[in-house]
Amino acid sequence: MVLSPLALLLALGATALAEPLRFVDCGSIDGSIQEVNVSPCPTQPCLLHKGTSYSINVTFASKIESQGSKAKVYGEMMHVDIPFPIPEPDGCKSGIQCPIQKGHSYSYLNKLPVKSEYPSIKLIVKWELVDDQDQMLFCWKIPVEITS
């Protein structure tokens, strides 16, 4: 079977859109990340358009038990973490059924709003989810570019 160039391009494009993001694990201690998805973000660095909200989905396995969890998000520039507010920092209200149990897998779901007043800049998004003891269930980083 010979594929036309257009069919080949469409097949490759569909595959690329469905792939999980390449991320850097930045210190997941009490959990292990299985997959990170930011939607829409077909290529990296993710182009984050001002005035748009992005869906975050992190699949991870917990190595501990915890009553709750809290997300902390930062924009990292020149190795400095600048806190980045998100609408819902409570992991138990973001797709995770609490209490968190050891050995279970969870899908953490949240939104990343990019406000219109943010500067157009390249940076690293660092996303942490901490447990009751303030230990990291997961921590991941991806490169992004905020654009108009």
Describe this structure in words.
Strands 1, 3, 5, 6, 8 and 9 form a six-stranded mixed β-sheet that branches. The radius of gyration is 17 Å and the shape is elongated. The chain has one helix and nine strands. It has one domain (24-146): Immunoglobulin-like (Sandwich), CATH 2.60.40.770. It is mainly beta. The protein has one helix at residues 5-18, and strands at 24-25, 31-39, 46-49, 52-62, 70-77, 80-83, 105-114, 121-130, 136-147. Residues 1-18 have low confidence and may be disordered. The relative contact order is 0.27. It starts with a helix and ends with a strand. A hairpin with a 2-residue loop joins strand 5 and strand 6 (80-83). The chain is 9% helix and 47% strand.
Distance between the termini: 43 Å
Task: State mean pLDDT (0 to 100 scale).
Answer: 87
CATH architecture: Sandwich
Tally the beta strands.
9
* Helical residue percent band: under 10%
Q: Which topology does CATH recognise?
A: Immunoglobulin-like
User: Mind telling me the CATH class?
Assistant: Mainly Beta
**What Rg do the Cα atoms give?**
17 Å
Give the overall shape.
Answer: elongated
| Major β-sheet profile | 6 strands, mixed
Whole-number count of domains: 1
**Poorly predicted tracts of residues:** 1-18
Class from helix and strand fractions: mainly beta
Number of helices, where a helix is a run of at least 4 consecutive DSSP H or I residues: 1
Strand content: over 45%
User: What is the ordering of alpha helices and beta strands?
Assistant: HEEEEEEEEE
Subcellular location: Secreted
Signal peptide: 1-18
Domain MD-2-related lipid-recognition: 23-144
Pfam families: E1_DerP2_DerF2 (PF02221)
